[in-house]
Write a structure and sequence with these properties.
Elements: H1 2-19, E1 30-33, E2 37-39, E3 44-45, E4 48-51, E5 55-57, E6 60-61, E7 65-68, E8 72-74, E9 79-80, E10 84-87, E11 91-93, E12 98-99, E13 103-106, E14 110-112, E15 117-118, E16 122-125, H2 128-156
Parallel strand pairs: 1-4, 2-5, 3-6, 4-7, 5-8, 6-9, 7-10, 8-11, 9-12, 10-13, 11-14, 12-15, 13-16
């Protein structure tokens, strides 16, 4: 019972620590878990990070935009000063948008209007194999490490057998 308690509490505490940045008042960064982010026209944001949600930009993002499991849409006059990266989502660049850095998509597509500007390279790794490598392989390695730790604990806690004479 006690082991089950700790195995449930640790992931919750980990998520809580990661989400603290979403509530920082002095920061101009936007970080969300499961709630879409919109940067409105005339708005200026430093960095945007989204887990399990999508990003819509009508204003200006000074730095990078990164999404995990969500898409990015830059609407007319939207601007990103840094890189645009999405894992498991699509990127749509409408007319007149500017991306200062590169655009990288893992497991998705890029739709781009003719007069959209990208300052860096465009890298597209489409297909499910990339997602399996990026997300699945680390989970398999983590599972193997946990299994090894459990085996070592059980091995160390075995009582030595005694031979009766």
């Amino acid at each position: 019972m006690r082991r089950h308690y700790f195995s449930c509490i640790f992931p919750l505490l980990f998520c809580l620590v990661l989400s603290i940045t979403a509530f920082a008042e002095d920061s101009h960064d936007r970080t969300q878990f499961g709630h879409d982010i919109t940067v409105n026209a005339g708005e200026d944001v430093s960095e945007v990070t989204c887990f399990g949600c999508s990003v819509r930009v009508r204003g200006h993002v000074q730095g990078d935009i990164t999404t995990f499991g969500g898409s990015v849409v830059l609407e007319e006059q939207g601007e990103v000063g840094g890189d645009l990266t999405t894992f498991g989502g699509n990127i749509h660049l409408e007319r007149g948008v500017k991306v200062g850095g590169g655009v990288t998509v893992f497991g998705g597509r890029v739709r781009r209007e003719e007069d959209s500007v990208i300052g860096g390279d465009v890298s597209i790794f489409s297909g499910g194999l990339w997602l399996a490598l990026i997300f699945g392989l680390p989970l398999v390695v983590l599972g193997a490490i946990i299994a090894l730790i459990i085996w070592l604990v059980r091995y160390a806690s075995r009582k030595p057998s005694t031979v009766a004479a």
